[in-house]
């Protein structure tokens, strides 16, 4: 089994690299936070996830592709049947996989989300990532971080408080061997933000805002993480047909408990402007469909199709507007 010390050590190459960037001051606190969050008492399932990670067979990469829809590593030689079973079992031990796809030595992790579709919408709309220092807030298992590296980013710090997703990243990165990316077990409220400008050139917040009780506080944290002239890339649920309304929720939305407010597009722009951002532009609005978010062999629980009104797919089972997502870009002046 991979113990908490060994797991934390896997972040050292990244943290050493981060220490040579404008975010150097963050490296010490992130090292301490990572070690504290990966303790056995932090989550009852953590020992099982560490065991799954430890069971993964060692394999050498031949070709790594970070710029493809399925983030991929291809083997130097074909796997034997026993190795393939061990690889599949270890990865399956980290179920459910929400973001992907990943293609690891011939095994395709067909995640719940076709995250490559969202990335395709994002990459056509944002500034060039060449040489950039990127922060990905609520990043899940790091899929978008790998795609950002594939688009030229220099270093990507991903943060997510869900330990299962952190262990998924460690599993994937065991094969991709990427020292320019890490998914650290942290939330945006854990970040060592100073009152002055932050160090990041680009900040991604993809599918996070509506999970925050205080949307203004989340946007303020994203603002503080950016350097002057840095770019915010925000993807969130919106009311596309009612731009000036805010849907405030006390019950569930699409069977999710932790959705607090969904703004119309005009109100979203107002929120982002109130946080201090300028040059605000909504660059994409797309209705989420059960083709993009669905149950798979790698995410066997209910997904979007189970959360829509069976007689009217334009509504959730609670009667709210069905999920529509916007991508907004803005700059810190």
Describe this structure in words.
With 333 residues, the protein is of the alpha/beta class. Helices cover 29% and strands 25% of the residues. A seven-stranded mixed beta sheet has the order 9-8-7-10-11-17-14, with helices on both faces. The protein has a four-stranded mixed beta sheet with strand order 1-2-4-5. Helix 2 packs antiparallel against helix 3, helix 4 packs antiparallel against helix 5 and helix 4 runs parallel beside helix 8.
**By helix and strand content, what is the structural category?**
alpha/beta
Counted beta strands: 17
Question: What would you call the shape?
Answer: globular
What integer value in Å does the Rg equal? 20 Å
Main sheet overview: 7 strands, mixed
Q: Provide the succession of SSEs.
A: HHHHEEHEEEEHEHEHEEHEEEHEEEE
Q: Termini distance?
A: 48 Å
Low-confidence runs: none
**Percent range for helical residues?**
25-40%
Count of alpha/pi helices: 10
Strand order of the largest sheet: 9-8-7-10-11-17-14
Mean pLDDT: 95
What percentage of amino acids are in beta strands? 25-35%
Would you kindly provide a brief summary of this structure?
This protein has helices at residues 4-9, 12-18, 26-37, 46-54, 81-92, 115-123, 143-150, 163-176, 215-225, 265-274; strands at residues 61-65, 71-75, 99-100, 102-104, 107-109, 113-114, 133-137, 155-159, 181-184, 200-206, 226-237, 246-248, 261-263, 278-287, 308-309, 312-316, 324-331.
Question: What's the structural blueprint in terms of helices and strands?
Answer:
Layout: H1 4-9, H2 12-18, H3 26-37, H4 46-54, E1 61-65, E2 71-75, H5 81-92, E3 99-100, E4 102-104, E5 107-109, E6 113-114, H6 115-123, E7 133-137, H7 143-150, E8 155-159, H8 163-176, E9 181-184, E10 200-206, H9 215-225, E11 226-237, E12 246-248, E13 261-263, H10 265-274, E14 278-287, E15 308-309, E16 312-316, E17 324-331
Parallel strand pairs: 2-4, 3-6, 7-8, 7-10, 8-9, 10-11
Antiparallel strand pairs: 1-2, 4-5, 11-17, 12-13, 14-17, 15-16
Helix pairs in contact: 2-3, 4-5, 4-8
């Amino acid at each position: 089994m991979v113990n908490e010390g060994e797991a934390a050590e896997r972040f050292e190459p990244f943290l050493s690299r981060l220490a040579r960037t404008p975010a150097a001051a963050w490296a010490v606190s992130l090292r301490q936070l990572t070690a504290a969050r990966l303790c056995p008492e932090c989550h009852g399932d953590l020992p099982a996830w560490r065991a799954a990670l430890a069971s993964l067979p060692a394999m050498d990469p031949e070709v790594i592709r970070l710029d493809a829809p399925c983030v991929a590593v291809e083997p130097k030689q074909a796997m034997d049947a026993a190795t393939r079973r061990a690889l599949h079992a270890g990865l399956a031990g980290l179920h459910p996989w929400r973001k992907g796809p990943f293609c690891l030595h011939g095994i395709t992790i067909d995640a719940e989300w076709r995250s490559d579709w969202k990335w395709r919408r994002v990459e056509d709309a944002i500034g060039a990532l060449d040489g950039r220092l990127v922060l990905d807030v609520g990043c899940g298992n790091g899929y978008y971080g790998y795609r950002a590296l594939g688009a030229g980013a220099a270093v990507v710090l991903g943060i997510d408080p869900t330990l299962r997703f952190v262990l998924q990243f460690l599993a994937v990165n065991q094969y991709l061997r990427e020292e320019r990316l890490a998914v650290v077990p942290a939330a945006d409220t854990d970040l060592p933000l100073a009152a002055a400008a932050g160090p990041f050139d680009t900040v991604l917040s993809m599918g996070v805002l509506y999970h925050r009780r205080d949307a203004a506080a989340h946007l303020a944290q994203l603002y503080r993480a950016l350097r002057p002239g840095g770019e915010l890339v925000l993807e969130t649920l919106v009311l596309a047909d009612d731009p000036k309304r805010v849907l405030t929720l006390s019950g569930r939305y699409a069977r999710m408990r932790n959705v607090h407010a969904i703004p119309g597009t005009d109100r979203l722009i107002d929120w982002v402007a109130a946080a201090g951002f300028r040059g605000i532009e909504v660059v994409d609005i797309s209705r989420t469909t059960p083709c993009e978010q669905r149950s798979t062999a790698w995410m066997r629980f209910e997904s979007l199709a189970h959360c829509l009104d069976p007689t009217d797919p334009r509504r959730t089972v609670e009667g709210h507007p069905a999920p529509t997502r916007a991508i907004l870009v803005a700059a810190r002046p």
